[in-house]
Amino acid sequence: MIHSMTGYAARTLDVECGALHIELKSVNSRYLDFQFRVCEEVRAVEPALRELFAGRLARGKLECRLSFAPATARAQLLTLNADLLSRLSAFQAQVLSALPLAAPLAVGEVLRWPGMFGDDTLDLEALIPASLALARDALADFTASRAREGEKLAAVILERVTDMRALVREVAPRIPAAQAAFQDKLKQRLVDAVGSADDERIRQEVAVFAVRIDVAEELARLSTHLDEVERVIKAGGASGKRLDFLMQELNREANTLGSKSVVSEVSQTAMELKLLIEQMREQIQNLE
Fold it and tell me: What's the pLDDT tens digit per position in 103-133?
């Protein structure tokens, strides 16, 4: 399946001591690039997250936000550590006795003092596997969103391929007659200039020019490249770079077709082909 590099997913997991929340979002990029914003409580899980994402993604700039919110009920059950509060008061009295100009402890500083609410430490060991489980669930949603977007992009590209095939089919039968008419016109101009239709130089010039304006090879290569575009899309997987290369090849053939054109119909077709190729390229820039 074709995947887009654009995706989004968010998940929340309730744990005993609070709630974990993860958010994943990505945009297109030439390479696989990670940006993590992980809270201190679960900072140790970042290497495992990087390994997890690298195993599922090939390209794109991924931003991962992982946060932890302590449970409100848990905070309400906390009680002050009376023994620690008493010792802090005694220490403050000693300090103020020695340094009268020192500022006393503020209430906020006292409440944030380590151990003031008894054993209020988090079970970090339990948060790590919970964070990984949450990340796996979010990654599944994230991959599914990229797949849905990729399916839409693939449909647009295949539609453009169909349009290009129709243009080639429409113009191909008209080219030989148009080229023959142009060669006759060229031959007549040479006859008018030289004065003899049997002159060997005229036959050589016409033959050389006929080779120069022959676009059968370009039309064949266009069809071959379009076949390859369809094959790559149907094969799925990380195919953005391959398709981008094919767009370069298609554009090269369209340019050559236009440069060899001796009639307005072929020139117009070459321009329309280039327009469709550019439309495909814009979509392919978002594919993984």
Answer: 888 888 887 777 776 555 556 677 889 999 9
Q: Are residues 88 and 113 in contact, defined by beta-carbon separation less than 8 angstroms? A: yes
Q: Per-residue pLDDT tens for 245-278?
A: 999 999 999 988 887 766 777 788 889 999 999 9
Domain 7-73+125-145 has CATH 1.10.860: no
Q: Which of 156, 269, 182 is nearest to 222 (CA)?
A: 269
> What is the pTM (predicted TM-score) of this model?
0.70
What residue spans of 61-174 are helical by DSSP H?
A: 72-76, 82-98, 107-111, 124-171
At residue 24, the 3 state secondary structure works out as strand
Side-chain half-sphere CA neighbours of 288 within 13 A: 28
Encode pLDDT of 58-81 as tens digits: 999 999 999 998 776 454 556 777
CATH (one of 1.10.10, 3.40.1800, 1.20.140, 1.25.10) for 147-284: 1.20.140
Task: Answer yes or no: are the C-beta atoms of 153 and 283 closer than 8 Å.
Answer: yes
Q: Which two three-digit tokens encode residue 124?
A: 């970090």
Distance CA 24, CA 10 (A): 6
As a whole number of angstroms, the distance between CA 139 and CA 56 comes to 9
